[in-house]
């Protein structure tokens, strides 16, 4: 696969904008990998060559990075990439059960995509949202306090094309390619949409206010 001239032109324009944000061009590799993922739905061979060319790197240097991070997909992800946290806390709170029932329901396993290209599944490590365990993510938006039944319903709704809203974040879920473009640093204007901190995350703050607690003075501070 080679990029069509108009696609190549658009990618180059976006890549130059991203590279211009960094003092050294090679620092733009991570966002550029997200950029090609937003075009192809995964980090394609052509995409990696494009990154190497734009940044003056060897393809081996690019591949060394793209194969290290699990957010870069080596084969096409689904339109909706569904992650289930199976790290310790989520696992004991039901994440393992969700994963077991969801994989059977959807018919694909870890890092696999349904034949219609709509859903891919991934076993995720901690999403840093343990206070909402068990947690799932779709295209990196949070779905908190899940159960096997709610997880299966969520995936069915996505496959049926229904509007699905994350528990926190924007009111409408974007596609995997759209999310990749945001991760490349190209704003979709929705960063401030919806609540980010909520419920149990703010419990410590509520308690501190109620008790009149404040942070201890820093040692050595005047
Ligand atoms: S263990 Fe699942 S979010 Fe931390």
Walk me through this protein's architecture.
The protein has about 220 residues and is α+β, with helices and mostly antiparallel strands. It has two domains: about 5-65, Arc Repressor Mutant, subunit A (Orthogonal Bundle), CATH 1.10.10; about 80-175, Glutaredoxin. It has eight helices and five strands. The chain has helices at about 5-20, 30-40, 45-55, 60-65, 90-105, 150-160, 175-185, 205-210; strands at about 80-85, 110-115, 120-125, 135-140, 140-145. The protein has a five-stranded mixed beta sheet with strand order 2-3-1-4-5. A hairpin with a 2-residue loop joins strand 4 and strand 5 (about 140-145). Helix 1 (about 5-20) runs antiparallel to helix 2 and helix 5 (about 90-105) crosses helix 6. The longest helix is centred in the middle third of the chain and has 19 residues, at about 90-105. It is globular, with a radius of gyration of 20 Å. The mean pLDDT is about 95. The structure holds FE2/S2 (inorganic) cluster. FE2/S2 (inorganic) cluster binds near residues 90 and 130. The site of FE2/S2 (inorganic) cluster has 11 residues, from helix 5. GO terms for molecular function: 2 iron, 2 sulfur cluster binding; metal ion binding; NADH dehydrogenase activity. Belongs to the complex I 24 kDa subunit family. Keywords: 2Fe-2S, Iron, Iron-sulfur, Metal-binding.
């Amino acid at each position: 696969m080679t990029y069509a001239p108009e696609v190549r032109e658009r990618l180059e324009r976006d890549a130059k904008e991203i590279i211009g944000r960094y003092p050294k061009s090679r620092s733009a590799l991570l966002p550029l990998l997200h950029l090609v993922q937003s075009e192809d739905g995964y980090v394609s061979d052509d995409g990696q060559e494009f990154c190497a060319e734009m940044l003056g790197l060897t393809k081996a240097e690019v591949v060394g990075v793209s194969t290290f991070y699990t957010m870069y997909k080596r084969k096409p992800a689904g339109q909706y990439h569904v992650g289930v946290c199976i790290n310790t806390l989520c696992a004991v709170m039901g994440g393992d059960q969700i994963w077991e029932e969801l994989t059977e329901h959807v018919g694909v396993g870890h890092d696999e995509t349904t034949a219609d290209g709509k859903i891919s599944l991934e076993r995720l490590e901690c999403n840093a949202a343990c206070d909402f365990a068990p947690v799932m993510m779709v295209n990196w938006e949070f779905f908190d306090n899940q159960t096997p039944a709610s997880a299966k319903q969520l995936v069915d709704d996505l496959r049926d094309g229904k509007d699905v809203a994350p528990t926190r974040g924007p009111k409408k879920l974007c596609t995997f390619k759209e999310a990749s473009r945001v991760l490349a640093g190209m704003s979709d204007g929705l960063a401030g949409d919806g609540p980010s901190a909520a419920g149990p995350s703010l419990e410590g703050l509520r308690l501190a206010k109620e008790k009149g607690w404040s942070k201890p003075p820093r040692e050595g501070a005047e």
